[in-house]
Amino acid sequence: MKLLNVFKVVIIVFLPLVALTLYFLYPFKENKLIFTIFILFFVFERTWEGLYTSREKDKDKIETDWTLPISVLSYVALVLLCLAEFYMIDRRVNLLAGIVGMTGYTAALFLRIWGVRSLGDQWSIHIIGESKIQTGQMLITGGAYKYMRHPVYLGIILEQISIPLLANLYYTFFIALAFTIPFQLLKIRLEEAEMEKRFGNNYVAYKKSVPAFNLFLWKKRYQLR
User: Fold this and answer.
1) What letters, b where the CB count within 10 A reaches 16 and e where it falls short, cover 184-203?
2) Is the pLDDT score of 221 beyond 50?
3) Where does the chain have alpha helices with state H?
4) Start-to-end Cα distance in the chain
5) Does a structural domain hold residue 120?
6) What is the C-alpha to C-alpha distance for residues 131 and 125, in angstroms, rounded to an integer?
7) For residues 195 and 139, what is the distance between their CA atoms, to the nearest angstrom?
8) 74-79-83 Cα angle (round to 5)
9) Residue 225 located in a structural domain
10) Domain that holds residue 101
11) Measuring CA to CA, how many Å separate 112 from each of 81, 119, 167, 182?
């Protein structure tokens, strides 16, 4: 059984089962219906986007991309931490934190969808390995990639830190903050090294003209050749 198939079972079956079990075990927990619906939506949306929308021929093949299982496990851990903190710690609802979290989550969803659609048939869940960059692929510099080099990674960062904030889960927020940003920055370094090997000076020029994240630093792109 392929490792990604194991991950799919864990995410699609185990996480919803845990969420629903806790829902019925804590009958008097406030706001649990809204929280459970959101967690289930998050689990199924991320599973669909991350594991089923890739255009790779063999998207279940992990190859040498060790970052992929870590990414999946980080989402599993995020959901479990959110569930544990929500049910074990009683807090008064902080509306401001919830609004900031929802705003961040909405922006994350938009960035990820925009980035994936901009990549089109070249959208891949691997950052390294043969399935990531194949002969005949082009350097995508349009759509979201006209304004930033990593809209999907920015969306992931915003998502993983905004979900705990949305539910006022501050311990989980700081854990996600400490892990997510360093790990995503590492993935970016690995991916850009692969891109430079594949596209050479074109990608170097693209890096100089388009920022990784900051839209306010965007400037006129170099003419890519």
Assistant:
1) beebbeebbebbeeebeebb
2) no
3) 3-9, 15-25, 32-52, 67-88, 95-119, 151-166, 170-199, 201-209
4) 44
5) yes
6) 9
7) 9
8) 145
9) no
10) 3-217
11) 23, 11, 21, 19
What six digits make up the tokens of 216? 């306010």
In a domain, 166, yes or no: yes
User: What pLDDT, in 10s, does the model give residues 92-141?
Assistant: 889 999 999 999 999 999 999 999 999 888 887 776 655 555 556 788 88
Distance from C-alpha of 188 to C-alpha of 166, rounded to nearest angstrom: 26
pLDDT of residue 118: 92
Q: How far apart are CA 14 and CA 153, in angstroms?
A: 26
Pick 223 or 19 by higher pLDDT: 19
pLDDT (mean) for 77-101: 94
Confidence (pLDDT) at 22? 96
Amino acid, res. 73: L
For residue 200, the domain's CATH number is 1.20.120.1630
Q: Tokens representing 87?
A: 């049910």
DSSP annotation of 40: H
User: How far is residue 127's CA from residue 152's CA, in Å, rounded to a whole number?
Assistant: 12
- Sequence letter at residue 183: F
Among candidate residues 28, 35, 27, the one with its CA nearest the CA of residue 164: 35
Q: Phi, psi (5° rounding) for residue 93?
A: -70, 125
Helix (H, G, I), strand (E, B) or coil at 96: helix
Amino acid at 66: W
Give the number of domains in the chain: 1
